[in-house]
Specification:
Keywords: Amino-acid biosynthesis, Aromatic amino acid biosynthesis, NAD, Oxidoreductase, Tyrosine biosynthesis. By secondary structure, the protein is of the alpha/beta class. The protein is built from 13 helices and 12 strands. The strands form 2 sheets. An 8-stranded mixed sheet has the order 3-2-1-4-5-6-7-8, sandwiched between helices. Strands 10-11-9-12 form a 4-stranded antiparallel sheet, covered by helices on one side. The longest helix has 32 residues. Bound molecules: nicotinamide-adenine-dinucleotide and prephenic acid.
């Protein structure tokens, strides 16, 4: 496995390329419909080589990765089927839905192996500038091979993608769309709907958006994701989403009744059950709840304090993944939330800040 061709060099295609390109034995060629993305992918060192057309990259490839929106994935499968590809070539995709894609791939010529894939990590950001080599580290990477896929070919694919450091899982495409519909697709609809609701309220109460604080921002972050990508995902997972709409309507009616009846006990149970289930979700991987290695630091509200904290971390060569001021009011101690990539970084930061008399807690 030497020649790898990635079609679509956005967030996901770019991140896969960065993760596998570190291996000297792979040569990664890339193509993107957008000339600007393609140019940037090469100049940022995301790919080894850019090609001018799908045919140019595909005919010599041992592995072809389709990293475009799911509707485009189906068109590309049909397009690739018209080309004279290498014998034993493997085609995989990264689409967020699997059933329609796997069905489309069933039409491919017999000499082509198609293995559906879905790395379960991402971002609301799009484009090659957002790509990161470590995006999939510890995340689940789901494969949906059909019964006709040769075991050796699946191993070959995993041997390339193991450099993403993701954790591999296998299931059939229908089960994939059911589960991912619940943990990913439907929540994106809810996030966008909450934003629509606020937009309507703003028409009569223009000041309301200034009050939208941490809670609203946390739950609606994913409403900033690519509209084209999410349109296509929803169109591919219609059946599962319709079930989820029914369940959601029941859930909202249940909550509505508790509020209408002034049922304090019922509301307490409603929130207690949700909290305890959420807290039991896996935290140490990039599953439903991402890994947080957060450290909170009490800081006096005076100019220069943030640069002092970041300077101390830089002195100890500790990298931050995020920094956020949680509270900063006049004359009141504020709180900085520092996020780290690992527990080790957090512990080092804790020690370094303590030495400079900063109060920290996890
Ligand atoms: N964003 C996420 O969080 C996430 C996570 C896992 C999987 N996915 C899946 O990954 C795929 C890509 O998503 P992304 O977030 O990288 O999107 P993106 O918008 O960052 O990148 C997609 C790229 O594909 C290019 N493209 C579109 N049609 C093309 C075509 N026919 N030929 C060549 N290039 C084409 C676009 O120009 C763009 O650069 C989607 O199928 C999505 O469902 C996304
Ligand atoms: O973190 C985010 O912003 C994401 O939305 C990532 C997310 C998800 O829903 O969890 C989005 C789409 C995917 O197919 C996989 C992961």
């Amino acid at each position: 496995m030497k020649d790898i061709f990635i079609i679509g060099l956005g967030l996901i295609g770019g991140s896969i390329s960065l993760a596998i390109k570190k291996e000297d034995s792979f040569h990664v060629k890339g193509f993107d419909l957008s000339a600007e993305q393609l140019r940037m992918a090469k100049s940022l060192g995301v790919i080894d080589e850019k090609v001018k057309s799908i045919e140019e990259g595909a005919v010599h490839a041992d592995l072809i990765v389709l990293a475009v929106p799911v509707a485009q994935t189906i068109e590309l499968i049909q397009q690739l089927n018209q080309l004279d590809l290498k014998k034993d070539v493997i085609i995989t995709d990264v689409g967020s839905t699997k059933q329609e894609i796997v069905q489309a791939a069933a039409q491919l010529n017999e000499s082509i192996t198609f293995i559906g894939g879905h790395p379960m990590a991402g971002s609301h950001k799009s484009g090659v500038e957002a790509a990161k080599a470590h995006l999939f580290e510890n995340a689940f990477y789901i494969f949906t091979p059909t019964a006709t896929v040769d075991r050796e070919q699946l191993i070959t694919l995993k041997n390339v993608l193991k450099h993403t450091k993701a954790r591999f899982l296998q299931m059939d495409a229908k089960q994939h769309d059911k589960l991912v519909g619940a943990v990913s697709h439907f929540p994106h609809i809810i996030a966008a709907s909450l934003v629509h609701q606020l937009e309507k309220l703003q028409e009569t109460d223009p000041g309301v958006t200034r009050l939208a604080a941490g809670g609203f921002r946390d739950i609606t972050r994913i409403a900033s994701s690519s509209p084209v990508m999410w349109r296509d995902i929803l169109l591919h997972n219609q059946e599962e989403l319709l079930h989820l709409f029914d369940q959601w309507q029941n859930e909202m009616n249940r909550a509505r009744n508790l509020v209408q009846d002034g049922d304090g006990e019922g509301l307490l149970t409603f929130f207690q059950q949700a909290r305890s289930f959420r807290e039991g979700l896996p935290q140490r991987n990039k599953g439903a709840i991402p890994a947080f290695y957060d450290l909170f630091v009490d800081v006096p509200d005076h100019p220069g304090v943030i640069s002092d904290v970041t300077y101390i971390l830089a002195e100890h060569e500790i990298s931050l993944t995020n920094i956020r001021i949680l509270e900063a009011r006049e004359d009141i101690m504020g709180v900085l939330r520092l996020s780290f990539r690992s527990e080790m970084d957090r512990d080092l930061a804790k020690k370094a800040l303590k030495k400079r008399l900063y109060e920290t807690y996890e």
